Amino acid sequence: MYQTTYHRPTSLAEAARLFSEAGDAAYVSGGHTLIPAMKLRLSAAANLIDLRHVGELKGISVTADEVAIGAGMTHAEVAGAAEVKGAIPALAGLAGSIGDAQVRHLGTIGGSVANNDPAADYPSAVLALAGTVETDRRAIAADDYFVGLYETALEEGEIVTRVRFRVPEAAGYAKFRNPASRYPMAGVFVARHGDGSVRVAVTGAGNSGVFRAAEMERALAADFSADALKGIALDPADMMGDIHGSAEYRAHLVTVMARRAVQNLGQALAFV
Amino acid sequence: MGVEGIGARVLRTEDRRFITGKGKYTDDMTMPGMAYAAFVRSPHAHARIVRIDTGAAARMPGVIGILTGKELAADGIGNLICGWMIHSKDKTPMNMGQYPAIATETARFVGQAVAVVVAETRGEARDAADAVEIEWEELPAIIDPLQAIAEGARQIHENAKSNLIYDWEIGDSAAVEAAFQRAAHVTRIDLVNNRLVPNAMEPRAALGYYDAGSDHYTVWTTSQNPHVARLVMSAFYNVAPEHKLRVIAPDVGGGFGSKIFIYPEEIVCLWASKRTGVPVKWTGDRSEAFQTDAHGRDHVTHAEMAFDGDGTMIGLKVDTIANFGAYMSLFSSAVPTYLYATLLSGQYALPAIHCNVRAVYTNTTPVDAYRGAGRPEATYVLERLVETAARELGMSPAELRRRNFIRSFPHQTPVIMNYDSGDYEASLDAAMKAADYDGFPARKAEAARRGRLRGIGMSCYIEACGIAPSAAVGSLGSGVGLWESAEVRVNPVGTIEVLTGSHSHGQSHETTFAQVVAERFGIPLANVSVLHGDTDKVQFGMGTYGSRSGAVGLSAIVKALDKVEAKAKRIAAHLLEAAEGDIEIRDGEVRVAGTDRKLAWHEVCLAAYTGHNLPPGLEPGLKEGAFYDPTNFTFPAGCYICEVEIDPATGRTAIVQFVAADDFGRVINPMVVEGQVHGGIAQGVGQALLEACVYDRDTGQLVTASYNDYAMPRADDLPSFKVSTTETICPGNPLGMKGCGEAGAIGSPPAVINAITDAIGTNEIDMPATPEKVWRAIRASGLAEAAE
């Protein structure tokens, strides 16, 4: 790790001020992407601004239509929140399936969504649950938010403050994990909404990050059953391929996981 | 057996410090004025060093010195050696390329040390190392051993034509050919034994200190065998004279073989301390561990087994290419030869065996012994072959094995080994019973109803432990003897210190060795301490590897105990005015048999040290040493049965049952032995399902250089193991022990793969059997439609 100066703001305003004044700065929340990269000297912000002590980023609120989660909430807090479990059990399950216990007690939803790792779990839920990403400057619809690999609509210095999810009629999440990193190689979040629309979002597999599987959405809107997905095959050309799974294998896994998500509504299942 | 003696499940005395974070590892050592080393490493798999410019780096804050291979050579520091001479079948000696601790002209693998920076802090050393400028001329890299020996391949070392280190053979090829001529059936198989990264929990580290006042050297290092390190560093590397060099291996966090070898970093730290005048510490990070710890396995093998008309094995031929990486590591040459091909008879009465091994250079990290070292590779060849043969012959795998088991001992195999004892049928029966083997078809049918493919596979392994006797290994090319030494120091109050050459880095010697001593005199375990790992305390030792500490190290302790007991009895006989032959030591008392005349153990010990009333001519004191050189290897063996369920839609394999029935001879502490078997199986399952060391074929970069890409087994990858032992006493050592440290890693990989191939109806799948590989095999076999 290179030398860095650690800052601990207690308000959003202070955090934003520190960021603009510090020059070479990076926000850190759970730090599960940034800190390892810094340890390997692949990332070297001169100033590290820790958002974990900003009270405005805490809290969960639930209405009949919406679950809103503060960006600073850890995966363990989301997984354990009775109101989230009650409103969108698959979302609580997804949070509880991220990484391991240590990761879940440090990693935050805001950090995950801001980083937009192509294999992170949360982005699939944000997309499938027609979410909105709130920042200290504006609200961004999920469909406009995720731009590409590690790329979002966030501007320099913009802080994710809250993530809002539409409460669906039914939703399920199923993923197949990379055996080494345990990030999803194919994670599929399926949600049927009150307006009759179905959203299917895929993480870990696409070669430009999280994406919606339009053909699956159409099929499920017509017939919300696992059988409706039979025969739908994604194009391997759109998939990532690496030593753990070729593009062809990932494309196949997406269909398998989509079917299992539909078969296990109200749950988040990891098929290792 | 006492409650703390041989056979007792005593909790480990080591646990208190390990579990509470109070262990003292090399990185915990500090010295006044200590500086830190950071290595500049080759970013290329194969490149010529055109120029090294240290000017800018030397001017950076905190930098004390920057050293390169030029200075190393100027100070006469010797190249790294391989300590086991192998001759090719044309009688020529192996082609050992020059391996300097710091590369001078050419780097041959990614991560090879090219320079070292010594600075006041770790960060400053690292910053300056980044600032060392090296001009490289990149050369083509060869990763694949088959390509390395192909016509026209670029030569990696000047003296190794076609990149061949040796072309070695063992066995009687004429007898094997004759057997194949008359065979009723021949089973053929092609296998890859995948390269593994050892992944000890503690990365390697070294702290070198040269004391100019006394002209004395000390190095703390993560070593499985500090005395061998001292010998090699003085006799071959010329870093320090042996009598002025102290090597300390304090607590060491796992080795699995990778800490046997003496690496460039510890040599350089000690040498750099003399050069710079300050103590120099280096602690490897995990990336360095991936790139520079000697890797394991990496064989490509074709094997054929011949059978007569009733399923009797009549011949075996094996052709193996072993990838050695860019340099010959310390014991690399012995691994695919005398630790591999000599085990190819397995548990079977094979009359004719021939094995040919070609050792090959590539531009990859050097390969050497890793838990099992050669024996897992042999077991994998044999047990995949036998399982495949059973399917081809339409016999049950158990029956085919049973038909060919060796049943009388001693048994001379056609490949050097003379098995001293064993009962292979007993472990097979025990394993089949524990696995409810007969109930498998019902379990398979039930799994099928859930859409899962269930398979069962077995593996009957044998290994050779102890690596001995010295005269025998010497005749086969070993540069060192493979005995062990011990010293038993009885204090005047009757407490005992045992000094052993068997280093403990996870093996629990501090507990199990003490159990043997406590049992001998009937004293509490708490009154015995075991010291190891310091060449200034322990006179000599050959270290810990090859599951030798019980059979060899503990035998040396027993020999020393015999001497202590004899002297204590002599003193007691004198004090009690009895005949020596009538004295017995039990339960902490020294008594005249059949009488009530007795002394407490500590009274005899005190008498030895006061010297007030000793038998005429007897020296005071109660301290004895012994060297023990075994008469033979030991031969642990066993049967493992693995049961898997495969999700045909994803190809994911779940191990749903794993049974191990091992014969380790006499067991000192069953709990410790079970722990060894558990860990070994986890490593074997890791090899079979998860672990793959992958290099980029074009660039030679290590793709799996972190845990993000190198898949280690986790607790939830494994079931709760059903382990048990059967016992045949080893006739070759006083306690009848065989060794248990590697068995799990040796026996498990073929059991796992045999179960997978059974489940999916193919004989061809390579390790690691990743979900995608299994999915593709299932698709090819047409079983895929079953699932969804």
TrEMBL record, chain A:
Q: Does the keyword Signal apply?
A: no
SMART domains referenced in this protein's UniProt entry, alphabetically: CO_deh_flav_C (SM01092)
Q: Which SUPFAM superfamilies match?
A: CO dehydrogenase flavoprotein C-terminal domain-like, FAD-binding/transporter-associated domain-like
Alphabetized InterPro entries for the sequence: CO_DH_flav_C, CO_DH_flav_C_dom_sf, Diverse_Substr_Oxidored, FAD-bd_PCMH, FAD-bd_PCMH-like_sf, FAD-bd_PCMH_sub1, FAD-bd_PCMH_sub2, Mopterin_DH_FAD-bd
Source organism (scientific name)? Propylenella binzhouense
PROSITE patterns, per database record = FAD_PCMH
Which Pfam families does this UniProt record tie to the protein?
Answer: FAD_binding_5
Per its record, how is this protein called by name? Xanthine dehydrogenase family protein subunit M
Give the Gene3D superfamilies listed for this entry. 3.30.465.10, CO dehydrogenase flavoprotein, C-terminal domain, Uridine Diphospho-n-acetylenolpyruvylglucosamine Reductase, domain 2
What keywords are annotated for this sequence in UniProt?
FAD, Flavoprotein, Oxidoreductase
Q: Domain of life, per the record?
A: Bacteria
Q: Taxonomic lineage of this organism?
A: Bacteria, Pseudomonadati, Pseudomonadota, Alphaproteobacteria, Hyphomicrobiales
- Locate the FAD-binding PCMH-type domain: which residues? 1-170
Mind listing the GO molecular function terms for this protein? FAD binding; oxidoreductase activity
**The keyword Transcription regulation belongs to this UniProt entry's keyword annotation:** no
TrEMBL record, chain B:
GO molecular function terms noted in the UniProt entry: iron ion binding; oxidoreductase activity
Tell me the superkingdom of the source: Bacteria
> Where is the Aldehyde oxidase/xanthine dehydrogenase a/b hammerhead domain positioned along the sequence?
20-140
Q: Which SMART domains match?
A: Ald_Xan_dh_C
- What Gene3D superfamilies does the record tag this protein with? Aldehyde oxidase/xanthine dehydrogenase, a/b hammerhead (3.90.1170.50), Aldehyde oxidase/xanthine dehydrogenase, molybdopterin binding domain (3.30.365.10)
Keyword Oxidoreductase among record annotations: yes
Q: Which PANTHER family match?
A: ALDEHYDE OXIDASE 1-RELATED, XANTHINE DEHYDROGENASE
> What protein name does the entry list?
Xanthine dehydrogenase family protein molybdopterin-binding subunit
